[in-house]
Write a structure and sequence with these properties.
- The structure is a homohexamer of 277-residue chains.
- By secondary structure, chain A is an alpha+beta fold.
- In chain A, strands 1-2-3-5-4 form a five-stranded mixed barrel.
- In chain A, a hairpin with a 5-residue loop joins strand 1 and strand 2.
Chain lengths: 277, 277, 277, 277, 277, 277
């Protein structure tokens, strides 16, 4: 069994992967083939089915787990898997095969709880605690990405990104005592909470219908409004405002909202921009 | 003697201040008056000279230290000083009266040295060390603002902002091991070093002629090029690139340059955006 | 008693108005005065208090109803009222003195009900009906403007603008049978419903604290979510999407959302752009 | 004979179509083929000629009517016609085969006349009447699209779009009595009249050389200037201004010009933005 | 009699000037005064009437020539004329008093003719010749500015700017033989010809009603279309295209149109951007 | 031996060319091939290697000179060379095969010296002279393009563009005596001097690592600072400012910097925008 990250050119491999994308195409000469993206916890690889297309096409759908036999080739500087045979991998949960975070999720989860525990304002502490105590939501943070196809685009990326942005905000609050630290850290911990109902489980991470139309910002505001009972009205508005403007620098009217905007940008570029060898 | 931060409406005060701005104007009815901005280490206040204008006008220039007797009034929700008498304050250095940093400069200076000392790459460490060992440049960092009329616009703001940006970058480098930490921290420590030759001492902090035409970004690159002898060519180019694009997100081509851009923005908004009472 | 719309230059007038704005200023020569904006249902006029400033200043606040004696002057091509005496107008509701809609509010209210009654989709019809049946909300639509200082900036402007946008959308749905008419008309009827909790009653129409931070778009989404129980999930998301993107053309992903965006713009420019004499 | 709208996958069909686009290409392996877009009044379909390429290529040109035998295939989720044989369709006018309006052109023509007839201002009425009475121009409105490859991109789209924009403007003029209704409706009826000399007949709707360089806005202004004899100078300038700024919101200086701009946008998005199934 | 360019502070002067702007204002204390801009061929000066305001106001209008006695003062670093007495200057043409070109208009006129004479393409030569032979239009080019309040904003600026842009274009055509020199030079000679019917004579240079609504670009296209009889259709379209896109870089589709755009910008910045002492 | 500019479809040719680009790709059916761009002093042509791919691939690298036997084909309206055999061309300098300027380089070099010799300000004349006297730098101007893949993208384009921009600036300085002609012409002669260390020799003209990160603007400023010893500080700052803002219109603060910006744009569009046949 070969992990994707270990595949090498010109080798014949056998492995179990999830189908993150599946598209039926034709060559210019008219022959049909399948263009796939296969994933496992270690990474992603493009794959092609050139033979027995109709037969194999009928055996699996996007999102399924499959057992594959094929040969690793190179196409435009990237590895590609030429599939020879393929069958459903019974009894496996495809979401377990989604590309996964490389850092220790336990440790990140612990740090999330530490940051939430540090809060001292009672209303903010209680509001954040309702999210921290929600086991299902916490499980989604460990299994969803921060963005479907941008930064932190792997299972658990949502947890990793949330902890990173909150860590940066906490540092900035220490450097700038004028900022309301509890408001800022609470907003950073909750800023992407809408992702938990915007996206579905891997390997495809497709947005829900509601997610596609309303986006994670609005869905996050809805979740916070449902749980912000313990919070006085004015601070609730500030918290919602910071979360609501975290993708729109010009909408931010408070220092904390502006800081959250830039901390979010900062973590995204740190994760994605090129680092030369 | 009254510190500006302690002035209250409807009081007669006497104090020694520096003249940060001076302009001669006329009322619509044709009477001349002087519009001033007075500063001391604790803050800034607008002032007006309505009587004996010609006499008082001849006694002092923008940038001078003056001894003032006047009455504090309120104009459009802000305090304003109505000057009754004014004379040069002999023997005082006006730069000492510039609005000053509120944090402990010693501590900031110590943290700057700590950050420079942590660097482990020999070429970067040696290059940064040449700046850290330059007592005149270090003194300028303690006496100049980060921007003449934007964020950190007081004496020592340059030092405070530099340390804050470097602290944020160091934190981000710990969160993202893929980043080249020494390059990022070095670039952050030097990113505004051009300010030391762009701006002149307080209380006015006027740009030099060269500063006005070339700007602190280019002047900083020049300073780094003069002192980057110990650094191999490719890393020197990376360092210059990060400093050179710290005001232009789209020009940044490396993760470290992008991170520096956003860390700089982050510290600026944290210092200036409104925090409701 | 003189209505504002009937004031003429060089006349001495007496009237009862509401104070829409009040600011204490000083002349350059140092004398304090009050700069006011006075309103009544017929319009707005700038006013000045030059004498007895401290005495008169203490008698009333922004938002109050006042009885004024003064002289109408002209300043930079606009009429201005020079106040000679001013006292609180006891027993009057200042909101009754806010500039008001010129069209017949009854008729507009009737047309709103007609448009809501025409809907045939059960879930949309029931959702809209909950708003139409809410007497307090309906009263707010008659007493609030569509924008505090833009188009339809008078009491009842919210009702007038809502009916106009819905009328345009209904027309467009008839021209384009491909559009989902009930969705489009429902979204147009509810698009500005958040204004009812964003703004406070006249004459000042100040935003609430929550209104200032969250804006009418988010507040409208919250109101719709609270009342959209009868609506199936996918259509609820479409309705929320159209309302949520009515100020952001690029966010609109459906034809109905795009049409609402442009219908809203169309009614705003029709109400405000200059029509030469 | 098969209408394009009725073609189904995996069927062999025979039909008469017009060639809206024709391009000779090569596969990567070097074999030449023809990439076509075929149209008839019911729609459009991509087509490919893989065999006898040189022979078939010589038989027809872009814009011709052709008789085709082929098989319907699917390529990237869209139907595509694999051409087996193809010959010129003698005696047919290719323009008759252009994709055509689905609404009743007679009815639209009648409504155009109704709107023109409603005008009461003598100069505007007379000016518009000169266009309405121009049979050739009217015929072009029935046979040209509103845009060559955007909204209303089929024969008669120009007429349909013109009537729709004028209908919306008439409605807005009723909602806003401050608007000069005759000016607004006249401008809307003439706003795209330049299209009649910008574009050539279908199936290709290629712009004329002059159309490509000068655009329909300028060409429309020229046509109006030639026929606006009955109109007093100031109103002629207003009419030209509204037509001249109907693609440039910022250039519009009058309410009527702004309304026309947005009504044009509104009709375009209503026709083209996606409507989910 | 004192030319404006020779006025000095603290002198009493008498002169004959034209009134380029006139506005009645009030001081904050309520006293009316007149704010004027006076011009003569040598320059411009702000002026104020503080006394006998009602009497003097009734004696003259914007655009008149007046005889003034006053005292030169300084206000915010600029000279200002305090008017003591003022009366109409009978028998003078105010347009003769507009600020005028400093270069020799004869010489510029000669160079314009030289450039037109150099053209060798018969159609372009004949078209341009119709403008060159139009004495009234030529006179307007000598008496109008290139822009009412931007670059070359004085009588004759239109002629000077036209010759300069054409000179630059001729030079560029020599450097780039691929350009169609006659087309480029013709377009440059005619690019601002619409100004001759957009603007009225000095000293105010107000736009005509048509000028305000349609702008000089469209008016220039109309003039060229009226006179381009000798020109074949395709070249006429090219000429109109270049003139029509000379304020819109993105609309330019030919090299000549792009060059004209930049040559126009180049001459404008060369005339207006600051040159340090 | 066939020059690229003379190649015709369907001919078998033999020639010596340089490889400006080389990429290994696969057809959809999986067969590898090489996609090349071949150049010689007369032009550029795409080429493909379909057979013996592995063998031929090992024989040459991007940037090499090669001897090629092949057949000229047409692909999407452009000629393409189908390579049959290919071998290294020993003993040839590939840079000699880069696409080259068509104008006489001697003449351009002479005009460069003429423009430099005309300068009369001693400091500017001496500074420019240091560049003119640098034979290596002059040789680079004759062998490098002005941009790697934009305007003047052939060997010697840098010299041609520099002379053209300086010629335009000289003309503008004559039209506008207010400009400081020596400053403007000096800045134009040096504006792209950074290209000499940004780009490497043909046929590939790849940027150096430093060039990629720092860009020609900064590298040019560095070269000028190294050689501007004879120039007084204030004029040196003006010269650096004009060169430093020649790609950024908004950064330009002086007339000369703005003129240089537009002259550079003007020459670029004159060289690249389409000229219809």
């Amino acid at each position: 069994m070969s992990a994707i990250v270990e595949l090498e050119q010109d080798r014949v491999v056998e492995g179990v992967y999830a189908v993150a994308k599946k598209e039926r195409r034709s060559t210019r000469a008219g022959a049909p083939y399948l263009a796939l993206e296969l994933v496992d916890p270690s990474g992603r690889i493009e794959a092609r089915v050139w033979s027995d297309v109709d037969l194999l096409d009928s055996r699996f759908a996007e999102g399924d787990a499959v057992r594959v036999l094929g040969r690793v080739d190179r196409f435009r500087d990237r590895l590609q898997l030429e599939v020879r045979s393929l069958e459903p991998a019974e009894g496996l949960d495809p979401a377990e095969l989604a590309p996964a975070i490389r850092r220790d999720a336990e440790e990140l989860d612990g740090f999330l709880e530490f940051l939430a525990g540090e809060l001292s304002h009672p209303g903010l502490k209680a509001t954040v605690a309702r999210f921290v105590a929600d086991d299902e939501l916490r499980a989604r943070m460990r299994s969803l990405p921060a963005t479907a196809d941008g930064h932190h685009g792997y299972a658990g990326g949502l947890l990793e990104h949330t902890v990173a942005v909150a860590t940066i905000c906490r540092e900035v609050a220490q450097l700038h005592p004028r900022l309301r630290a509890d408001l800022l850290v609470s907003a950073s911990l909750l800023h992407d909470v809408g992702r938990t109902i915007e996206l579905t489980r891997g390997p495809v991470f497709k947005p829900t219908e509601e997610g596609r139309l309303l986006g994670h910002v609005h869905l996050g505001l809805r979740l916070i409004e449902e749980r912000a009972g313990p919070l006085e009205a004015s601070l609730r508005a500030e918290l919602l405002h910071a979360v609501g403007s975290h993708h729109d620098a010009r909408a931010a009217r408070t220092a904390e909202a502006s800081v959250l905007y830039h901390a979010n940008q900062l973590d995204a570029v740190a994760a994605t921009r090129p680092v030369p060898d």
